[in-house]
């Protein structure tokens, strides 16, 4: 073999050796970049689940696509979020997210794992009080009217008050006196408690393990705050309000250690706010409001909002009830609802169209006015569900109707074909 041939052979051998070494290094490097399988799963959902369950790196997955597995490189971050609730094709059901097994929303991958969203099936309905036909039930998803055996046991009343404690729904109303109906939502069993044989039940609220009923007895001219045990469903004590609240009580608000009552006296055209200590009811006082008809009440823990005809007055809860400000041109006399730093006020426009005013509570100024219908009428009742405001209103064109306020816009949902005057709106799930 010539010298040139030997040199060529040596070069070929060197290239072969170096090539193999390079290949070895590449293969070895690739083996150190580990890939792990991440699986997304769920518990609690069934085939009626509709809509997005989990969104993974921007890609939505529904019930039929789970479990879903994805290969992820070691050290990479995976972004995902499980829906807080998942709708159901069953008209009165939905699935609520209880918790997530694994990291809640994002994770840096270091091993193979399964991330599970755990859901609980709940029943959810709207309760609507109507002036003539009484209490009605609507499915939470499509808002169609439903029938229920327990509804048949609750009499027709002009107005209803609602409280939920676990699986028990308490319905306060006036029918042969002041009555509270306790409904076991699981079994449909109904019990009744007579709070006053002659009184008118104005409102019902709960704090701790007690219900508090606001009662006006027109025959005797007495008004009462009645404490009721949730455990025994019996009256614990009755507190007379008429000595320092000189009017008809309309609304009640509770905190852990106090009750606030708003009342109006049509004879003297004055309104009152009362403070009563809880649970002993030994400390109390009232503040007279001479300038408007006060019939609604809500609070945010630091402030008390009182709804009068065409305006809202704001007081600090200190508990001396120091007046802060009055906001005018909020036409009508509908509900107040405080949520997420905003106060929603049901009423109408100056031209008598159903509307909801939105007030920023930091500045106590009107941020926006939402028109619910172009027909004449007024918004009367408000409720909140999943950050959406629901407004029950009456108009000449649609009758008793339901609208929503969400993401800066109002939406008309349904008219009530029975064309009755609305008195109550309440969302309940169990």
Show the helix and strand layout.
Blueprint: H1 3-32, E1 35-43, E2 49-50, E3 52-56, E4 59-62, E5 68-73, E6 77-82, E7 85-88, E8 93-101, E9 106-108, E10 113-130, E11 134-139, E12 145-146, H2 149-153, E13 161-165, E14 168-174, E15 178-184, E16 190-196, E17 200-207, E18 210-217, E19 222-229, E20 235-240, E21 248-255, E22 258-265, E23 270-277, E24 284-289, E25 294-299, E26 303-308, E27 311-316, E28 322-328, E29 336-339, E30 342-348, E31 354-360, E32 365-371, E33 377-385, E34 388-395, E35 399-406, E36 409-416, E37 422-429
Mean pLDDT: 86
Tell me roughly what share of residues is in helical segments: under 10%
Total domain units: 3
**In percent terms, what proportion of residues is strand?**
over 45%
How many strand units?
37
Task: Give the overall silhouette.
Answer: globular
Give the CA-CA distance, first to last residue: 94 Å
CATH class of the largest domain: Mainly Beta
User: Count of helices?
Assistant: 2
- What about the largest sheet? 9 strands, mixed
Rg from Cα: 31 Å
Structural class: mainly beta
**Low-confidence spans: pLDDT under 50, at least 5 residues?**
7-18, 21-31
CATH topology category name of the largest domain: Methylamine Dehydrogenase, Chain H
Query: Mind telling me the CATH superfamily name of the largest domain?
Result: YVTN repeat-like/Quinoprotein amine dehydrogenase
CATH architecture of the largest domain: 7 Propeller
Brief summary:
The protein has 430 residues and is mainly beta.
């Amino acid at each position: 073999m010539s010298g040139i041939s030997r040199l060529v052979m040596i070069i070929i051998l060197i290239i072969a050796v170096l090539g193999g070494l390079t290949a070895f290094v590449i293969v070895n490097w690739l083996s150190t970049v580990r890939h792990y399988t991440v699986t997304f799963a769920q518990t609690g959902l069934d085939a009626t689940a509709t809509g997005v369950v989990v969104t993974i790196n921007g890609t939505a997955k529904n019930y039929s696509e789970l479990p879903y597995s994805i290969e992820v490189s070691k050290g990479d971050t995976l972004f995902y979020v499980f829906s807080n609730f998942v709708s159901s094709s069953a008209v009165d059901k939905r699935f609520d997210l209880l918790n997530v097994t694994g990291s809640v929303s994002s994770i840096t991958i270091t091993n193979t794992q399964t991330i599970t969203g755990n859901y609980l099936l709940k029943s959810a309905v709207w309760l609507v009080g109507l002036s003539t036909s009484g209490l009605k039930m609507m499915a939470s998803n499509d808002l169609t009217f439903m029938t229920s055996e327990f509804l048949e046991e609750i009499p027709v009343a002009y107005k209803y008050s609602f409280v939920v404690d676990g699986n028990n729904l308490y319905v306060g109303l006036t029918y042969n006196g002041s009555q509270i109906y306790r409904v076991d939502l699981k079994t449909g069993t109904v019990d009744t408690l007579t709070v006053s044989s002659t009184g008118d039940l104005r409102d019902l609220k709960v704090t701790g393990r007690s219900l508090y009923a606001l009662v006006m007895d027109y025959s005797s001219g007495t008004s009462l705050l009645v404490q009721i045990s949730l455990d025994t469903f019996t009256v614990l004590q009755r507190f007379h309000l008429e000595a320092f609240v000189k009017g008809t009580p309309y609304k009640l608000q509770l905190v852990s250690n106090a009750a606030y009552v708003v009342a109006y006296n049509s004879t003297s055209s004055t309104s009152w706010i009362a403070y009563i200590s809880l649970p002993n009811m030994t400390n109390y006082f009232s503040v007279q409001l001479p300038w408007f008809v006060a019939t609604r009440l809500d609070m945010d823990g630091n402030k008390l909002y009182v709804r009068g005809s065409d305006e809202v007055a704001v007081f600090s809860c200190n508990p001396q009830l120091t007046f802060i400000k009055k906001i005018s041109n909020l036409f009508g006399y509908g509900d107040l609802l405080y949520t997420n730093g905003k106060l929603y006020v049901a009423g109408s426009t100056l031209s008598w169209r159903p509307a909801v005013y939105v007030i920023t509570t930091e500045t106590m100024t009107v941020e926006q006015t939402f028109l619910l219908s172009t027909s004449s009428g007024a918004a009367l009742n408000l409720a909140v569900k999943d950050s959406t405001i629901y407004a029950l209103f009456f108009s000449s064109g649609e009758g008793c109707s339901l609208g929503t306020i969400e993401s800066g816009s109002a939406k008309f949902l349904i008219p009530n074909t029975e064309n009755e005057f609305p008195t109550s709106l309440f969302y309940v799930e169990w």
